[in-house]
């Protein structure tokens, strides 16, 4: 009676340390039908990261070339490095009417919303700033001043929650994943989305 | 960081035979935290039904008295009988910030939406009119002309789907229940709802 629902762009943001990467990874493990938007970045690769899976790591020149060729849906400078979302995978998700996850920051999320009105924006909140700080310190990969800077940015980013569609408080990772799964399942049945077809 | 989300009025409609009563019953079994809005009706009780649980069965005079005293959130005549939603339970759900299920028809749903803007309207579609007809005939409780009349009303009711928030196609009862659960879980995290507080 209804056609297959249109493609769903699910943007997941959180301040760093908020847990969005863990959440995206678990969602992808549980749902092989989802696509994942691998971001382009000029920041150095961490030892645990895999090129093409976690990020596409490129030089600043390569990045600028992609921008000039119109290959990015959005891009921004965050903590001094460039991050961008390649258009190709998003267009594929729309064409094939699939769910695609975008693990991006607040600035990027706002640009995706402008460009793709059908996108669904989910903000993952840390349970508190204290917990966020503890998580950032727990990583052991950052210098004190980096942590301070990230916390100050996190405070600012959290002020954007009202511009998102959903807010999930990440007290428990399993429960947070269940909430994001529920949001995706519900959005597919939304009349607003079915009417647009 | 956020308060407990406000009460959620979940209206579940379907043409008769569409499966809404089975779905509501299963949801209530799985979620003792949900309230259920028991409707008032003047139609005769079926042998399997329990007063106060399935419906509150009253005479037409009693029904009219409740209307006159302003005790109903909405009421309507359907298939020649009066059906209404008592206000008390709804007000309790709002006050206690709980989820309440309303198993009501299209006319009632539209009136609930007017009165309670925070309500969420879910329309359960039968997989097809053929399936709906088979289900109605399978009940063995209705005369041929009753079935014909219900089918004709069902066709009209199905035209209302665009005025609902969500449409779920009831191909498989378990999957339909999972979708309604996902909708309720997602709605609780909606920024629009959290902003209204």
Brief summary of the model shown:
The structure is a homodimer of 197-residue chains. The first copy, chain A, is of the alpha/beta class and 197 residues long. The first copy, chain A, has one domain: Rossmann fold (3-Layer(aba) Sandwich), CATH 3.40.50.
What do you see in this structure?
The structure is a homodimer. By secondary structure, the first copy, chain A, is of the alpha/beta class. The first copy, chain A, has a single domain (about 10-195), classed as 3-Layer(aba) Sandwich (Rossmann fold). Helix content of chain A is about 45%, strand content about 20%. In chain A, a hairpin with a 2-residue loop joins strand 5 (about 70-80) and strand 6 (about 80-85). In chain A, helix 1 packs across helix 7 (about 175-190) and helix 5 runs antiparallel to helix 6. The mean pLDDT of chain A is about 90. The interface of A and B includes residues 2, 169, 183, 187 and 195 of A.
